[in-house]
Here is the input.
Amino acid sequence: MPKLLLFDIDGTLIHSNGAGRLTIAYALEKLFGTCGPLEHYNMSGKTDPRIITDLLTAIGIAPKEIKKQLPAVYELMAEHGQRIFIEREMLACPGVPELLTHLAGREDVLVGLLTGNSQLTAPLKLSAAGIDPLQFKVGAYGSDAMDRNELPAIGMKRANQLTGSVFNGNNTVIIGDTPADILCARAGKATAVAVASGWHAASTLADYHPDHLFDDLVDTELVVQTLLAE
Ligand SMILES: [Mg+2]
Here is the structure.
């Protein structure tokens, strides 16, 4: 049975050095004249539309108006990202390039993304960290749903459509660095693999009982064995 591996981006594949926050600030200030309480906002594991909606409703903008403006916000975020991602020195997380190279050589694996980033921003961030976005054959993005827990089903459906194989919770693995990634894997009845390469300590992630927990993705052989276990 082929396996679908859906990777989170920030804190899992790459370190973005606060660049995501800067793109949100840029876009919201340009469109709304303010980025709301962004400075004190915890973005960890949240989708872009969730973050944008929280920040703007906090300053009294109606959700309906925010929803209408989301595509314009994504455009501006990507536009700014294109300028700043390279200079922010985004880096691939340890072991990630080696792991992706290994996975690309396997026919029993479909590698994809499950990220809170919009579909426009995701490839820009990956490229800036030296990771070829084209190696991810499917994706479920923040621009697809505000609730991260809806993204597994979207990723699986796209994988089904692309390959004709059946992907569901039984043969899908979701890899991420936050409690929200673990909960979202549960929502999709998928296998939850947590990696403490982001902001959350392994002990924090352990509290959410992922199926597997790594400090990092450096041990390619062990990680592959775990990701592809039946
Ligand atoms: Mg993350």
Notes: The chain is about 45% helix and 15% strand. Strands lie at 3-7, 14-15, 91-92, 109-114, 138-140, 172-176, 191-195, 212-214. The pocket of magnesium ion is lined by residues 8, 10-12, 176-178, 198 (CB under 6 Å). Residues 19-84 form a domain with the DNA polymerase; domain 1 fold (CATH 1.10.150.240).
